[in-house]
Amino acid sequence: MGRRWLVTGCSSGLGRALATAAARAGDQVAVTARKLASLEDLVQAWPGQITPIAMELRDAHQCEEAVRTAADRMGGIDVLVNNAGSGLFGTVEEVSDAELRDQIETLLVGPWRLARLVLPSMRAQGGGHIVNISSLAGRMAFPGLASYVAGKHALEGMCQALAAEVAPFGVRVTAVEPGVFATRYGSALAEAAHRLPDYAEATGEMLGGFRAMEDNEEYGRPEDFADGVLAIVASDAPTPLRVPIGEDAYAYLEAVEQAAREEFAAARTLARPQA
Length: 275
Known about the structure:
This protein has helices spanning 13-24, 40-45, 60-74, 97-125, 146-166, 185-188, 200-211, 222-234, 247-271, and strands at residues 4-7, 28-33, 50-54, 79-82, 88-89, 128-133, 171-178, 190-191, 242-245. The protein is of the alpha/beta class. The chain has one domain (4-248): Rossmann fold (3-Layer(aba) Sandwich), CATH 3.40.50.720. A seven-stranded parallel beta sheet has the order 3-2-1-4-6-7-9, sandwiched between helices. A two-stranded parallel ribbon has the order 5-8. The radius of gyration is 19 Å and the shape is globular.
């Protein structure tokens, strides 16, 4: 039997590519988006394999209905992919309490809620896989993406605790850290309502880079990301908790790990009592 997937955020980008790849592999896929109309072509392309579900990630009732509908239509859920999300561009000083709460609700509370909703059935069936789509921002920081970085760091912390909690039930947990892919992330990136000109020099180049992401041939193909996730889910070998996807992701994160080692060494020297 093929796997039964619930993939959130499939109106475009990485989620759509993953849903297509899973359907092409013969699996059943429940796909979510805020508007059902954005999923019509997926349904038409893969009749009988794609179940479209309207869901707003920040709405607890809609999340409950989405999990119930997916399980009813497919007879269960083997793989949950928390892919839906959004980004907010703004420094710590610029982002309001309300904007911060909205970002954390999307990046952490929504995926946490969906994991909680699928776990009873995964525990009962003796297995499953929860894949949370994180980011390079889950392990490094970008100026101007303070709230997004905070949300992704929190998501990876949740993954680490969850993996230890559910391993005895045969449930696997993976935090996928995509590199830079040609998606609508940059063009859809919202900005904090109150921007301060003082930060223009520190963040302007970063914002411009994000805006140029869509359809840029220099960036990774969403189809390659999808192939990577399918390989992770299909693997019988023990899966690392964090799996970067994309050569650029490995290059960035190797530099991050080296900087962390240097920082650790410097901190030990600073904190050690002087003889």
